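Summary for the funding panel

The consortium committed to producing paired sequence-structure records for every protein in the target list. Below we show the first two records in order, beginning with the earlier of the two.
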Amino acid sequence: MTSFTQTQPSVTLDFFQASFAEATPPVGLGAVLLALWYDGKGDWQEAHEIAQAADTPDHCQLHAYLHRKEGDAGNARYWYNRARQPMPAVSLREEWKNLVERHLLKESRR
């Protein structure tokens, strides 16, 4: 079982993606990374459930990304506005990567 803990100095994107080989998410992930893990594994529905669980700017941006991925541009725009973020001009893959890297960095500073 993979574990993300505060004793691990910095988790890389490659390490995060390698954890997709596991049946369950790594222990210690924050909610946004947990949702991105499920999305990376192809479980949009579980990622969406997590995104809906809170109303923070990070959750709103996650929610926006998920609706953009779903192809619901109107709903995505609503959630980007709630997150006070513009609609990204990058690919969905690039947006996912950027979100993961940002949240890995945030969690490494906790």
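The next record, for a separate protein in the list, is shown here:
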Amino acid sequence: MISMFQALRHIQNPQPIKLYMIYLVLADAVVFIHFLWILFLVFGAIPGRRNRTVRIFHLSGLFFALVIQIFDWYCPLTHIEVWLRARHDPLLTYSGSFIIHYLENVIYVSVPRLAVAVATVLICLFNGWLYLRKR
């Protein structure tokens, strides 16, 4: 909740509110792109079997996902989203959107790191199986 002083300050100078909204919208867009990226990593072998460019991009993405799990790094999309949210002041705008709330719960699941690493390996194996099986 914003204070009366903050509300009056931003009525006199409304420009910063627009800038904060841009950061919020961009952060939400990054979450949505992150969700689409995860779907592509899980199911990318299906179009990748028919298209060489998709296959190369998909296998590179799977390799990168495996590397960031091995070295306990965060996805660059996570860094971008955190950076954008840090520039957005949640006291001055709506606290979030319905869809983004649920997408974030899917993307940032609260499970042990080992479970995420095992899931990553299983996704890689599943996609490897899809690529190697006969058409």
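Regarding this second record: The CA atoms of residues 43 and 58 lie 9 Å apart. The longest helix spans residues 15-43.
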